[in-house]
Amino acid sequence: xxxxxxxxxxxxxxxxxxxxxxxxxxxxxxxxxxxxxxxxxxxxxxxxxxxxxxxxxxxxxxxxxxxxxxxxxxxxxxxxxxxxxxxxxxxxxxxxxxxxxxxxxxxxxxxxxxxxxxxxxxxxxxxxxxxxxxxxxxxxxxxxxxxxxxxxxxxxxxxxxxxxxxxxxxxxxxxxxxxxxxxxxxxxxxxxxxxxxxxxxxxxxxxxxx
Length: 210
Prior knowledge:
33% of the residues lie in helices and 21% in strands. By secondary structure, it is α+β, with helices and mostly antiparallel strands. The chain is extended, with a radius of gyration of 24 Å.
């Protein structure tokens, strides 16, 4: 058998193997895609209920997601609308604090239209282990200090760490991280109270999350 025929034989063999592998991979993806999406959706719903209690809504909170695109509020990412009997009872807002010690800190904030915080959770961060990572619930209960507090324009100065004259504890040896989180929650609460609560219809202009 000539070299060219041997080469062609192996090329065809490799082609068949590649085709089979692709077919198998595609089949596995199609079989598991729905299951994976269901698990991810369940995890997202559970996280949303950590910042907005289930008794606050009777709609599909996850399906209400809208992308926020405002040039004067780039820290706002997404918003979820909690409704009961078609009335808005609360918002879950995904935000980004850009001034963490090691970069962006992504938060999920549950808040009523009147400025009361229902809960805050950290979604992503790169803060220093043993110091800045105390913003995680598995490390510390510090993030729970926001729950139940009500932001108002006349108490805005309290929405800072104690080192800056506010009411929130900072971490020993790590003030930058809690300061970034507190400032971001304050900014988000102020936006809800002064803009969104006044013009709730603005949400209809936002793009639906995909």
